């Protein structure tokens, strides 16, 4: 772990490291497509032993289409998480309330996030995982997009299955009690660095349940109440 080598590393410095590693991706031709929140549900906090929400950057190279198949061998030890995603209809910065943040959203959909970690066995501190871009690796958005005003966004049932077996069940309520609170928290954290969200960007609100390890041959399905299905295969 990074903090084992540099114990005095601060959270602010970890976010600076995260941006430095993003700058290298941008130099390689990737572009910023959005942001993700992490550790926003009790299940995730307890699984990882880190009890504070974090954010990471999503790039074009992480974007996968619904029904995509990934090669397990391209990853270290990938895991999948059931998520809710926002599509920003307007720029958003400052310190909005959850209600204000939601007004800047044009669409909501279900999403599967693939996380992977540089750290052995996903063992890290808050500062380590922030420096590693919050384990961001890939994401799949559902194709059914709804305006937030047409959904009970604060309590949507979520069922994640692998190879036809239900592996995790939950609700969008697990995400800081309402996914809009995760969005507002993200904007507040970005604001502390003079940044914000841009129209068209994607925001993942954070896993509603614990993450599940992926194996070759897995076919993952997420069903979100009112938002249809999202699928991911692993070869
Ligand atoms: C950190 C990333 C957490 C989420 O949705 O909570 C995350 C990790 O667990 O490796 O993406
Ligand atoms: Mg996640």
TrEMBL record:
InterPro entries: Fumarylacetoacetase-like_C (IPR011234), Fumarylacetoacetase_C_sf (IPR036663), Hydratase-Decarb/MhpD_sf (IPR050772). One of its GO terms (molecular function) is 2-oxopent-4-enoate hydratase activity. Pfam families: FAA_hydrolase. Residues 51-233 form the Fumarylacetoacetase-like C-terminal domain. Keywords: Lyase. GO terms for cellular component: cytoplasm. The keyword Lyase applies. SUPFAM superfamilies: FAH (SSF56529). The keyword Cytoplasm does not apply. PANTHER family: 2-KETO-4-PENTENOATE HYDRATASE, ACID HYDRATASE. This is 4-oxalocrotonate decarboxylase.
């Amino acid at each position: 772990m990074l903090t084992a080598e540099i114990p005095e590393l601060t959270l602010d410095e970890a976010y600076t490291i995260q941006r430095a590693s993003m700058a290298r991706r941008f130099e390689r031709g990737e572009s910023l497509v959005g942001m993700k929140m992490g550790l926003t549900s009790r299940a995730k906090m307890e699984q990882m032993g880190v009890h504070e929400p974090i954010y990471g950057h999503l790039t074009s190279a992480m974007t996968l289409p619904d029904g995509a198949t990934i090669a397990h061998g391209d990853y270290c030890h990938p895991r999948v998480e059931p998520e809710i995603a926002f599509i920003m209809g307007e720029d958003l910065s400052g310190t909005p309330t959850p209600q204000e943040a939601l007004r800047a959203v044009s669409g909501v959909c279900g999403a599967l996030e693939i996380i992977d970690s540089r750290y052995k066995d996903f063992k890290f501190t808050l500062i380590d995982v922030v420096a590693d871009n919050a384990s961001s690796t890939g994401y799949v958005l559902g194709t059914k997009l709804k305006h937030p005003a047409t959904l009970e966004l604060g309590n949507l049932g979520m069922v994640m299955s692998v190879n036809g077996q239900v592996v995790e069940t939950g609700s969008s309520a697990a995400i800081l009690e309402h996914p809009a609170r995760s969005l507002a928290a993200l904007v507040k954290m970005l604001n502390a660095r003079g940044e914000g969200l841009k129209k068209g960007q994607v925001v993942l609100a954070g896993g509603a349940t614990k993450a599940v390890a992926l194996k070759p041959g897995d076919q993952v399905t997420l069903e979100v109440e009112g938002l249809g299905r999202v699928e991911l295969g692993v070869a």
